[in-house]
Design goal:
Keywords: Membrane, Transmembrane, Transmembrane helix, Transport. By secondary structure, the chain is an all-alpha fold. The chain has 20 helices and 2 strands. The chain is 69% helix and 2% strand.
Length: 519
C-alpha cells in the first residue's frame, strides 16, 4: 500500500466533514487478511458521526465504562426481557390450548396438530429475509414495535371455529415474529462489547422461561375455572396473551431507542462514550444501505453454513418440545391436563437459572463456546433420561433439564452479534442462522408421529441424535474461529497503526485485518 493511500485512509476515518464525501466513492484501498484488496468508501457505519467528535469529550476510563454499562442495562434489558417473555408465551399458547380443548373443538385428528406448529415456522421461514431487510432499512425499534402490534392482533384472532383459519393465522403469526430475534441481535451488538454480549443475550433469551411460568399459570387458572366462562378456555389463552402483546408494542415503540445515537436517556457525551466502549468490537451501530458484496461474502463464508446446520440440529428438539411438551406430560408421563400446565413451570425456572448461570460462568472458561458444549452434554444426558428412563421421576427430570437447550442458540446469536462485521453481512448471516432455526422447528413437530403415541419414542431418539450433531457443530465453529485468529495474529499490522476510526468504516470481518473472533 502506498504512503499516499495510507494517509488517505487516515483522513477518511477521522475527518469532521465525512458527510461531504460521496457515499459510493472509493477513498482508499487496504488489504484483507486473505490478501485481497478492499475498497473503503464514504458509506460508513452510523457510529462514525459520533466517533469523529472524540476530541470534544474526556477519555473513557473503567469507572465511566461501568457506569455507562449499568445505565444501558437499566434502560434496555428490562424491556427486551419483557418482550422475549411475551413472545415465548405466545408460541407456547398453542401447547397450552392443546390440553384445554383446542384439538377436540377444531376436529384435529392424526397429524393435524403437528401442522399447527409447522405452519408457524413456515411463515417465519418465508418472511425471515424480508424482515431482516426491513430491520436494516428502517429504524430497528420502531419497525419491531409495528411487527409486535400486528402479531398481538393476530394472536387475539386465533379463537376461530375452523382448522383452516387457525392454520392460516399460525402462519401469519410466524411471519410477524420473525423480526424479533434478528432485531435483538442487532440491538445487542450496538450497545455491548464482545465480552458482554453472551451474558446479555442469555438474560433476554432466558426470559422465555418466565414466559413459560406465566403462560402455565394463566392457562392453569383458566382450566380450573373453565366452566365459569361463556367461551372456551383455549380461546381465552389466545385473547389474553394477544392483549398483553398489544400493550407491550406501545412500550417498545416509545421506550426503546433505535440506536445509541438516538437514545433519549443518554447525554451527548454518554452517546460518544458508548461508541468508545464498542470500538474494540471493530463495528458500530449499523448501516442502512444494502451492500451486495457483503451479502455475497456472507453466502460464501463457510462459517455462515456451520451456523446454519447448527441451528437445524439445535431446533429439531426445540420444535418438538415446544409444541408437544404438554401432550407428553399427559399421554406419556401420566399427568392430568391441569397438572401438565403446572408442570411447565419448573422447566421455566430451569431455563432462567440454567441459561443465565451458564452464560455467567462462561467467563471462567474464557470461552462461551466451551460453555455451550458443556450445556449440550447436559442436554444429551437429559434426553437419555427422557427417552430411556425407567421411572416417571427420571423422565420428568430429563424433561425439565431439556430447558437448557437454548444455551447453544444463545451462544450462536451472540456469535453473530460479535463475530460477524459489516451490517449487511450481519443481517444476512443472522437471517441464514434463523432460517436454520425455522427448518429445525419445522421438522421437530413432524418427528412426533401419531402412530407412535403416547410414548413418541422415535421423536425422543431424534432429539438425542440432533443434540449429538449440535455438539459437533459447536466444536467445528470453535475450531474455525481459533484457526482464523491464529492466521491473523501472524499478519504485519504496522501499516494500519495510524488509521483512526477504521472500526466504523463498515468493513466485514473478512475484510478487516484488525478483526479478531471472540471465542
Amino acid at each position: 500500500m502506498s504512503e499516499e493511500k495510507g494517509k488517505e485512509l487516515g483522513t477518511i476515518v477521522s475527518v469532521h466533514d465525512m458527510e461531504s464525501q460521496e457515499r459510493g466513492g472509493v477513498l482508499a484501498v487496504i488489504m484483507s487478511p486473505s490478501g485481497k484488496p478492499v475498497e473503503i468508501t464514504g458509506d460508513v457505519d452510523e457510529a462514525m458521526k459520533l466517533a469523529i467528535h472524540n476530541k470534544e469529550y474526556a477519555a473513557l476510563d473503567d469507572v465511566t465504562s461501568k457506569r455507562i454499562l449499568k445505565k444501558i442495562d437499566m434502560y434496555m434489558l428490562p424491556v427486551m426481557c419483557m418482550l422475549y417473555c411475551f413472545q415465548f408465551m405466545d408460541k407456547l399458547s398453542n401447547s397450552y390450548a392443546s390440553v384445554l380443548g383446542l384439538r377436540t373443538d377444531l376436529g384435529m385428528i392424526g397429524d393435524m396438530y403437528s401442522w399447527t406448529g409447522t405452519a408457524f415456522y413456515l411463515g417465519y421461514l418465508a418472511f425471515e429475509f424480508p424482515a431482516s431487510y426491513l430491520l436494516q432499512r428502517f429504524p430497528v425499534a420502531k419497525t419491531v414495535a409495528c411487527f409486535i402490534l400486528v402479531w398481538g392482533i393476530i394472536l387475539c384472532l386465533h379463537s376461530v371455529p375452523q382448522y383452516a383459519g387457525f392454520i392460516a393465522l399460525r402462519t401469519i403469526l410466524g411471519m410477524l415474529e420473525s423480526a424479533v430475534t434478528p432485531a435483538f441481535t442487532i440491538i445487542t451488538s450496538q450497545w455491548y462489547t464482545q465480552e458482554e454480549q453472551f451474558l446479555r443475550v442469555a438474560i433476554w433469551f432466558a426470559f422465555n422461561g418466565l414466559g413459560n411460568i406465566l403462560g402455565g399459570s394463566i392457562s392453569y387458572g383458566l382450566a380450573v375455572h373453565a366452566d365459569s366462562y361463556s367461551i372456551e378456555a383455549w380461546k381465552l389463552v389466545f385473547i389474553i396473551t394477544g392483549c398483553l402483546t398489544i400493550f407491550l408494542s406501545f412500550i417498545i415503540f416509545f421506550h426503546l431507542p433505535d440506536s445509541p445515537s438516538s437514545a433519549w436517556f443518554l447525554s451527548e457525551e454518554e452517546k460518544y462514550l458508548v461508541v468508545e466502549r464498542i470500538r474494540k468490537n471493530q463495528q458500530g451501530f449499523g448501516n442502512k444501505h444494502f451492500k451486495k458484496h457483503q451479502f455475497i461474502e456472507a453466502m460464501k463464508d463457510y462459517k455462515t453454513w456451520l451456523l446454519f446446520f447448527f441451528a437445524i440440529a439445535n431446533n429439531i428438539p426445540n420444535g418438538g418440545i415446544t409444541n408437544f411438551g404438554s401432550i407428553l406430560l399427559t399421554t406419556d408421563l401420566g399427568y392430568s391436563a391441569k397438572e401438565a400446565l403446572l408442570m411447565q413451570m419448573p422447566g421455566g425456572a430451569v431455563e432462567i437459572v440454567g441459561c443465565i448461570g451458564m452464560a455467567y460462568f462462561a467467563k471462567y472458561f474464557k470461552s462461551r463456546m466451551i460453555m455451550a458444549m458443556i450445556a449440550t452434554l447436559v442436554i444429551i444426558m437429559a434426553e437419555c433420561f427422557l427417552a430411556f428412563g425407567k421411572s416417571t421421576k427420571l423422565q420428568m427430570a430429563g424433561y425439565a433439564l431439556t430447558n437448557v437447550l437454548p444455551v447453544g442458540l444463545i451462544c450462536m446469536l451472540s456469535v453473530v452479534a460479535s463475530n460477524v462485521a459489516g451490517h449487511t453481512k450481519k443481517v444476512t448471516t443472522n437471517a441464514i442462522l434463523l432460517i436454520g432455526y425455522c427448518v429445525g422447528n419445522l421438522v421437530g413437530p413432524q418427528t412426533f408421529i401419531d402412530a407412535q403415541a403416547p410414548k413418541y419414542q422415535g421423536a425422543k431418539v431424534a432429539m438425542l441424535i440432533c443434540s449429538c450433531i449440535q455438539l459437533c457443530m459447536i466444536g467445528g465453529i470453535y475450531v474455525s474461529y481459533k484457526w482464523e485468529n491464529s492466521k491473523r495474529d501472524k499478519l504485519d499490522m504496522s501499516a494500519f497503526d495510524d488509521f483512526e476510526n477504521s472500526e466504523f468504516a463498515d468493513l466485514t470481518d473478512g475484510q478487516n485485518p484488525r478483526f479478531r473472533y471472540a471465542l
